[in-house]
Amino acid sequence: MTREARGPKEGDFITIKSYKHDGSLHRTWRDTMVLKTSENALIGVNDHTLVTEDDGRRWVTREPAIVYFHKHYWFNIVAMIRDNGVSYYCNLASPYVLDKEALKYIDYDLDVKVFPDGEKRLLDVDEYEDFSQRWHYGEETDRILKANVLTLVDWINHHKGPFSQAYVDLWYQRYQELLRRSTDQ
């Protein structure tokens, strides 16, 4: 079995590309370290990762962030590890696909931000409405996204998966072990 057929393994670096519904490239993250892959999910970490916007503007992430992608849920989750606690940025997005080039998904504009104190905010509702009309998301996509907002909020409220401090601690510790291993070689 070739590496491409298996996909990336722990410690590999991948590129992440988000697109808009019309197929245009939205944002690219270079060198996300893979922490775990399974049949349905990929967990990685961005730490001082180069990000390129669709207009060519480039910036580097400021803090380590555990990223979670799933092949069945219409969202992905970024757990940003900051001095004042963990903040979450959740993108309502298509389930990911992974090919030789990158992990790819369609960003559907709506975002949920969760602050260290647990406060939740639904962001970019106006942007979602504008793009939904411009690119004709359709009733089915709208229904799926709204259902996935409810799933996401349920995960947040019940500290499920990436919203558990134990989850963040486990994957951040694994990332630090992989870093030490790579510098010891």
Plain-language structure description:
The protein has 185 residues and is an alpha+beta fold. 30% of the residues lie in helices and 40% in strands. It has a 7-stranded mixed β-barrel. It is globular. The model has no long low-confidence stretch (mean pLDDT 95).
What's the gist of this structure?
This protein has helices at residues 3-6, 125-135, 138-157, 165-184, and strands at 13-19, 25-37, 41-46, 50-53, 58-60, 65-70, 75-82, 85-93, 97-98, 103-114, 120-123. By secondary structure, the protein is of the alpha+beta class. The longest helix is centred in the C-terminal third of the chain and has 20 residues, at 138-157.
What structural keywords apply?
alpha+beta; 185 residues; globular; 4 helices; DUF402 domain-containing protein; DUF402; metal ion binding; FomD barrel-like fold; hydrolase; single chain; hydrolase activity; seven-stranded mixed barrel; 11 strands; 40% strand
